[in-house]
Fold this sequence. Notes:
By secondary structure, this protein is α/β, with parallel strands linked by helices. It is built from 22 helices and 16 strands.
Amino acid sequence: MYYESTRGGLKSVLSAEAIKMGIAPDGGLFVPEKSIKLSLDQISSMIDMNYNERATYILKHYLTDYSHDELEECVNNAYSQKKFENPKIAPVKRLNENVNVLELWHGPTCAFKDMALQILPWFLTKAVKKTGDKAKIVILVATSGDTGKAALEGFKDVEGTKIIVFYPQDGVSEVQKMQMITQEGQNVYSIGVEGNFDDAQSGVKDIFGDTGLLEKMKDINYKFSSANSINWGRLVPQIVYYFSAYADIVKEGEIKVGDKVNFVVPTGNFGNILAAYYALEMGLPVNKLICASNDNNVLTDFINTHIYDKNREFIKTVSPSMDILISSNLERLLFELTDHNSGLVNMWMKELKSEGKYCVDTKTGKKISDLFWAGFSNENETLKTIECIFREYNYVVDTHTAVAIDVYDKYVISTGDMTKTVIVSTASPFKFNDSVARAILGEQFVNGKSEFELLNDLSKECSINIPKPLKDLDKKDIKHKSFCTKSDMILQVKKIIGI
Length: 499
């Protein structure tokens, strides 16, 4: 399997090279040059596999320059019982007759980013060796909260790498911030940025595109790569859990192989739902991909109008990991839906950069409408959903999962579609315990308490255990105190590298 850039500047790249580079030299994102199709018999073969076996089975179709033994080693190191509290890795919880919840937050940072970022360092270190590269790798990450901690944890003390994470100084939860600034490791750096996630993300992209800096790095044997979902090595492991969820539902007798299901995905950067799209393209029986947004509903508007317009107020919400106005992975979808037309993609991306918006053609717009349904949940609706799900099912969901459930309810009301549905749950409720406790226990209960006090309160009042990675987080030593403006991000990188 070979990969090419969505901007057309690079083709026929092996997966190891694509993973090592992270982003193409022309600013594009790597995608497979051809599609992969699995038969229903092949999908059936996964039913009796465990998660690690399913992962190896899916990944071998995309990472063909990795041997079976190499993939098994990557998978088993990433998805071990030492790192994941639930032996099923990505268990499916039955909510009611029609709805299941795919829990992706049983890893070391209690968020779905672990599903990809626990395996990416293994992909990357093998990629460097496979390509004969002697350079040290500097991982640059922009995070809206969860990616940062998951990347730091995944890459800590990995030989031949440094990892630098930029997060919006006041745009993440206290738990998320403490996870990042207390991170241990000799090669890890966590830096707050004045501004929002889009400022951090565009700052990182600017650093990747700074040719002068790249030349200086080359002189001292360093190279950049990315752990954001712009890296194909981040995206491809996410395809696995859609197949795994489907196999588990079949195994439980809720559906038969070939029956279609809906997936509801809360997303801001479009990577998680894009992985579902690739699963669908591979042959997973999917009826509809339901894209769930919060008040920053740029994706909802795009899917419904086919106009992408980031020229709007940025809103800080109780689901901060989705507080994003520039959805980077949408570029990959556009490339796929235009039959790899890099000319069109280039034109739209240039319009986005210069005007802050673009409009896709009618043919592409129709394909989007056929595949996706989109809606959003505002602040009050999100909190109300958390309360209602707890009252009705004695089940506690975080703010992002609540967005997905609320949007799913709107989908059913709008369409009448009662197809079996999987809600993709992206974070432990304890990561956003202030909002979750406020929704379930009330304003008076929460007032005056820190997020760390609320960890224990939420556990006691809702009879659920605090995940091990979050226990006593506030008692850890703060190791990272740096912050900067967007324009100074490059100076921070130079200082760390020693340029």
